[in-house]
């Protein structure tokens, strides 16, 4: 034990030495900001500099190559107190910065930033469970796979990401689409409390009783108000807590039955009575295998419910993984490898079969356009995702999030379908080549839906890039409320002016 402790101390000393040397080699604002961080005793060994193995490993762990940007330095807090120290230095020295949770967003400057510091919460990745209050407390740098594994031992889950590699903080602050949408709403709707470090270095709780306006704004308002260092979520008990299982999986059909699949999804969404069940559809083209048509189905009560009968009646079934299994295993099944150049474009429309068929046909056109220009033997994919936004899902938010979907329902355009076009290619040059095609595709979808009074203003922030104003799509009322919260809790505008990652509140 003495040897281990001594060895760890030597590692810390070595890391601090590297920090000091690296900071001295920098110039201008980068030297001032990174040097101040490295000089703080509490942060020694937690500031990573370019041309070091630890720094490179953190950048290489970012999911999308677009987002894997090299900052001046990476600072990795291990506690709320560390986070307070970092915020004070940033505010004092006017340091530009980005915020990283899991690093799963796809566009440049979504988490890491080139001209600034990246605050990387990768060391703050713990999960605990309080049985008395049925509360899962999760730190911002955890990924959902790790959280699910920890909570499994207690027989509970949470409304988290559908992939194990997605980070907790970005997912929840952007809203969060989970396997439990219809029963619990967005993932953020299950957040009971957040511990938040404000721009002035103070730490506050935000919940229904304390700093309620901040609590609401953070649920969908992204990183605009402070650094969240803990999320307290309402846990979801499984039917059998000794054997925590759900029912679900993937059904794959021949692409020839696309009309029947779309019709079934529309009816499922319009006639939803079983809020424990959820579904969404993916159709896509993969360069190595061609077209695919999938349905992802989940039931939280671990039963094969009548709600899925319509899907089970569709012919031309190629493959089914439907089964009783753990939340972690379902999320792992839907996880992608990453490390490509990616474009994600979200939209939303009224749940109408004519519109869904148009969206599918327009995506076919997109794929054919890409096939004409893509070099031979290129590895790429184009996926269209259609995810129901049901009335029970919207109602579960009870007006206590910033997302603003109540207005779409009030206007008679709900329930809806969230659409997502996603392209993955091998190089930045190919990404630039196909980017205009996907934007044109989404514009045509928007125009088609708008002509039928079926287009939603809302764009899902977690699937958006900065082509669109995701926060502005929440509506005027929500934007005004977020502005007021920002002015109250960050009067100097640190998270509007110095934060260079993510979406800002429209001004």
Describe this structure in words.
- The chain is α+β, with helices and mostly antiparallel strands.
- It is 36% helix and 21% strand.
- It is built from 17 helices and 19 strands.
- Strands 12, 13, 14, 15, 16, 17, 18 and 19 form an 8-stranded antiparallel sheet that branches. It has a 5-stranded antiparallel sheet with strand order 5-6-10-8-9.
Secondary-structure blueprint:
Elements: H1 2-25, H2 28-39, E1 47-48, H3 53-60, E2 73-75, H4 80-93, E3 97-100, E4 117-120, E5 127-130, E6 135-138, H5 144-152, E7 156-157, H6 168-173, H7 181-184, E8 191-197, E9 203-207, H8 212-221, E10 227-234, E11 236-237, E12 246-253, H9 258-270, E13 277-286, E14 290-299, H10 309-312, E15 317-320, E16 323-325, H11 327-333, E17 341-350, H12 353-373, E18 381-389, H13 391-396, H14 406-410, E19 416-425, H15 428-450, H16 476-489, H17 494-498
Parallel strand pairs: 2-4, 3-4
Antiparallel strand pairs: 1-2, 5-6, 6-10, 7-11, 8-9, 8-10, 12-14, 12-15, 12-16, 13-14, 13-18, 17-19, 18-19
Helix pairs in contact: 1-2, 2-4, 5-11, 8-16, 12-15
